[in-house]
Amino acid sequence: MSEVHDHIIVGSGCTGAMAAQTLAESGARVLMLDAGIRDDRYKNRFPGKDFIRIRKEEPRQHEFFLGLDFEGLPLQKIGTGAQLTPQRKFMMARTDEWLPVLSENFFPMESLAYGGLGNGWGLGCCVFSDEEMKEAGLDSGEMHGAYQVVSDRIGISGSYDDTKAYTCGTLQGIMDPVSLDRNGRELFMKYERGKAFLNKSGFFMGRPALALLTADRDGRRKYAYRDLDFYSDDEESAYRPSLTVNALKKRNNFRYEAGRLVHSFSEKDSETEVRVINMQTGQQELFRCRKLVLAAGVLSTARVVLRSFSAYDHPLPVLSNYYCYVPCIQPALMGAADEGMKFGYAQAALFHDEKDKSGIAMASLYSYRSLMMMRLVQQVPLEFGTAREFLRYLMPALMIAGIHFPERNGPGKRLTLKKDAASLTADVLSAEYLYSGEEKRDIAVREKKYLRALRKLGCWPVRRIDPGNGSSIHYAGTLPFSWKEKSFSLSPDGKLHGTRSVFIADGSGFSYLPAKGLTFSLMANAHNVALRVLKE
Amino acid sequence: MASDSAREAEIFGTYLAGQRPGGDVAGVYATAVRQHGLESKGDAVLAYVVRHPGRLKYIDAALAFSGRESLLRKKLFIMFCVLEAHPDYCDHFLARADNQRSIISLFFLGIRSAMRIAIGKMLLLFL
User: Fold this and answer.
1) CA separation for the pair B93, B86 (Å, rounded)
2) Which of A201, A211, A364, B56 has the largest CB neighbor count within 10 A?
3) Considering CB atoms only, which of A55, A337, A373 is closest to B87?
């Protein structure tokens, strides 16, 4: 018989890493099962230069910017994950084979990578308000403590400014924010001038809290402003869950198994059996534990749970923030010379809070350079030569506003698992994501307000791009928290109703999806779930 | 096929960067085209611009307006990316410091482009 582990954790993403750390630090024997796909071809490949020096000096830079197999050429239409560079593409590797989704109106991004979707996290950290936590089904008292624990683990830089209630909250030990680049400085100058009007309209702008070090810490180096944020994590200033898992691997009570896709579970006497597909051999394997913690990501967790109960064709709710982005021009910066210092993380966070039940919306504002002209040129309806000339003038003035809207459940937002003999797992996740007329109207009204606010900030919207449902890469609500014992829901402590020892540490339980960056709250919840696992 | 790619690289490079591409640009372009399965396959528009490189700017302008998925646009885009990611050409793709003239320049570029679209549309009618 195989070894019985105290805890099995499924997934190495942000939630899996946080839950695993909490469990392993208690001394329990923890096994992490993970697909764990990696791509080390690009690791430490680039010389210690910044973006501009690389562009000007490196003869084989196309291997980095376009990819060793030219996989980074952005030939496809804009959709979920359009911004992924060759170095981040591995995040989505083999998901078509192992995590098929059938849908005409929902295009999620999932990951089988070591570190999961956390490899591409934009690092934005936000605390949910008490109202948001209540609506999501989270215990606000426990969450406040967990936010601090996670912040201490990952390292956060930010500012206690106009938006601190939305970003840092009451967190202690926040590092200084990263320096603004010229676009950011221009933006905040305009904000100060128009602050009274903007605040009256419900808009508040501040520096985002980022899981990015601005001081050396725990062997990780502070941010070096190389503007290679979409390409490299070599300095480890940005938090990635692989940092946590790498550290856990050094512990005697932690074991990591890659190449494993968890298929389903069943409870037997005092143990839980976890059925796993070995992704190399295709053979089924069995692992055993006392408590199982699923942190595979909302959609993958739904697959595992539905398979385990043979609940094919059973509909589950699903939530994904509506998301659009708006390229804007700052006229004052048109034709400006290239600035040495720039970076790819958000310069500013613009919250829209009308203090009503509609919830808070959030826009992140980015300046643009390191994703290069190639990702823009096809959006310009001009011949390439002229488009290039246009963009040379416009790029220094370009800001991208990525706007997230809060999301609530609705009858048109459903997932079902269907049998499919052609799939490697013999099933496929079928999804439908449709907004009601009222929801569409609310989104349109709010978008208009955002466009007005952006103009007030000196950012003139050029167009609005809707990459499609699922493109926010925020998913939740498939197994909502419920005090009542009902199937396909979670108890408030994260345990799957109808089971003795199966806990869910990802966002499956959140019955409301605030627009604020989700990852920090997911990690805090994962820590709390792990604490409850230990208490039981 | 290799010489087809070399000829395309020469024409596209000259069009996009104003100079015949040197070094390994043609080789990188050919590899990228092959990786994405975009070899010519007897495309009439592509064959036309290879015969008449001087008309490429008009055809490109017309296709930018209503033919973005064409093989020619895709291949031009690949060359665009190859040149952007090459140290000899990167200055053509980095910000231009020209604050005073920018609005006027953009206006004239737009007028020129509109004329090219009109000419390109007419040329495409005969293909």
Assistant:
1) 10
2) A211
3) A55
DSSP state for residue A335 in the 8-state scheme: T
A379 touches chain B (CB under 8 A): no
Tell me what the pLDDT averaged over chain A comes to: 95
Q: Note whether A351 and B55 are within 8 A (CB).
A: no
Task: Find the distance separating the first CA and the last CA of chain A, reported in whole Å.
Answer: 25
As a whole number of angstroms, the distance between CA A383 and CA B56 comes to: 9
pLDDT in tens, B73-102: 999 999 999 999 999 999 999 987 776 666
- The Cα of B45 is separated from the nearest Cα of chain A by a number of Å equal to 15
Measured CA distances, A525 to A193, A200, A235, A302, A530 (Å):
39, 33, 28, 18, 9
- Report the pLDDT value the prediction gives residue B102, as an integer from 0 to 100: 64
On chain B, the residues whose CB falls within 8 A of the CB of A385 are 15-16, 57, 60
The phi, psi pair for B115, rounded to 5°, reads -65, -40
Residues 134-173 of A with CB under 8 A from B: none
Strand partners, A320: A475
Condensed to tens digits (0 to 9), the pLDDT of residues B12-26 reads 999 999 888 988 999
- Select the residue of A58, A73, A380 nearest B81 (Cβ to Cβ): A73
Q: Do A383 and B74 touch (CB under 8 A)?
A: no
CB A350 within 8 A of CB A365: yes
Q: Which amino acid is at A397?
A: A
Chain B: nearest CA to A60, how far in angstroms? Answer: 7
| Tens-digit pLDDT profile for residues A97-135 | 999 999 999 999 999 999 999 999 999 999 999 999 999
Residue-wise over A351-372: b if at least 16 C-beta within 10 A, else e? bbbeeeebbbbbbbbbbbbbbb
Backbone phi, psi, residue A452, to 5°: -65, -45
Q: Please state, in angstroms and rounded to a whole number, the distance separating the CA atoms of residues A449 and A394.
A: 24
CB contact under 8 A, A70 and B90: no
Compute the distance between CA of residue A200 and CA of residue B1 in angstroms, rounded to an integer: 64
Interchain CB contact of A377 with B (< 8 Å): yes
**Crossing angle of the two packed helices A14-25 and A241-248, in degrees rounded to 10:** 30
What helix, strand, coil percent values describe chain A, rounded to 5? 30, 20, 50
Query: What strand order describes the sheet that includes A398-404?
Result: A203-206, A348-352, A361-367, A398-404, A323-329, A460-461
Rounded to an integer, what distance in angstroms lies between the CA atom of residue A177 and that of residue A159? 6
pLDDT in tens, A41-76: 888 777 789 999 999 999 999 999 999 999 988 887
Q: Which residue of A has its CA nearest to B28?
A: A62
Could A385 and B85 be called an inter-chain contact, meaning their C-beta atoms sit closer than 8 Å? no
A47 touching B (Cβ < 8 Å): no
| ipTM of the complex in this document | 0.94
CB within 8 Å of B51: residues ≥ 6 apart: none
Distance from CA of A496 to the nearest CA of B (A): 45
- Predicted TM-score (pTM) of the model is 0.94
CA dihedral angle for residue A446, residue A451, residue A453, residue A454, rounded to 10 degrees: 140
Q: Which residues pair with A37 in a beta bridge?
A: A113
